[in-house]
């Protein structure tokens, strides 16, 4: 039979038969912690999984890895890592034999047929006393085989300790060679499956791999070599998994623990910061409260003292006037004509004295000054608390019957979009603004506190405020224009100019930046209208007046779009 070596140059040289043993593996923890393992170093057990194509540098690298993990071997070997990861291994050739290996002719110590076929022939070689004789036998240096037998005995001791459960079905006996059982014969030729087809990725027999076989011309290699390569790959994968497990364990033990401690520390610092800032705010509020209450009390005392002074003054004046009146009445009733003439100068003196007592006049000193309770800090805090509270926000929707034909109202009735052309779809409703791009909300306010926010970041020309129900709707005059009549109070923007407008009076406002949102606070009880920027907490303008009832939120837009924030 023509061997596959003649067909494919990629076929490796036949390996020298060597004893094969059962699994030496098991759990990594059992390997490392079990005190029942023999004292013989693992490097002397002959468990090297030598990779024929590997370089000397990679072998030393793996030996260094095995030594770093904590092998019990005094001379770390490639098998130490195998024992740790817990995979079955196959005993390879003697290390000295591998180092001293030199190229030989095909008939020098090797058979000319595949390795399994040589074993199958009578007299082709048999195992006696744990050593191979006949096929592929080589001469070793003196003492080499003795040390090899010592390793074999130590390995048998280890396998006896581990037990057959490390690989079910194999027990403690010699690991059968691939293709030595009837179930592992080629179904087509009945020969052992001693070769592996790399093209079809399956084991084949020598006939299938030879000339005329189904795998002729394919990439063929010995099944044992392929299995050996797979074992090495499994060992490498186990090493990678072990390194990955070690990395994960280190991450859990060190990184996550550090993260947990850092999170706890940062949470504690955050709590302290919140408590510190709120304490500062509370202290500031208490101080501001004390200051304002003192001002209110002082103003009350001043007004009360003024009233008392005025009361005493007018009481004295009343007493003097009563005296003058009594005197004049006595002159009139008790004096005759001559006596009355003689008392003429006295009469003029009494009349002049009475004229010196003036009539009471209205004075601000007698009134309580409400400005004593005004505080920019209190206003900002109040506006922030109202706008930040969901209960203080109003559900404001625009009345579609009031929307100008120049505006388009969204379906949710919260967004107004300006259009340069009037819409013909709008009906001629008596409540609709027919010239100016205005719109009123459907919500009315009679009393209490109300707040809403308008998104104005996309518009450079808009008006936002409140208006009374008396605001005219028809025509192009100023009486329908927001801020130009007595029925509307609006905050307006045109390009980079901001101002508050009411009844034709325009108050310029100096803003450092254009607000993206505009908050409106209406306190009908206090008579205050506040325009506020929620993002920065800045009060833009406060207007105090006695507003008529009811009031409507009012909007106007002449550029792009504005919308009510939900």
Question: Can you give keywords for this protein?
Answer:
566 residues, alpha+beta, 4 domains, 11 helices, elongated, disordered N terminus
Written account of the structure:
The protein has 566 residues and is an alpha+beta fold. It folds into four domains: 150 residues, no CATH class; 41 residues, no CATH class; 102 residues; 191 residues, Sandwich (Jelly Rolls). It is built from eleven helices and 18 strands. The chain has a seven-stranded antiparallel β-sheet with strand order 6-7-18-9-14-15-16, with helices on one face. A six-stranded antiparallel β-sheet has the order 8-17-10-11-12-13, with no helix packed on it. The longest helix is centred in the middle third of the chain and has 112 residues. It starts with 27 loop residues before the first helix and ends with a strand. The N terminus is likely disordered.
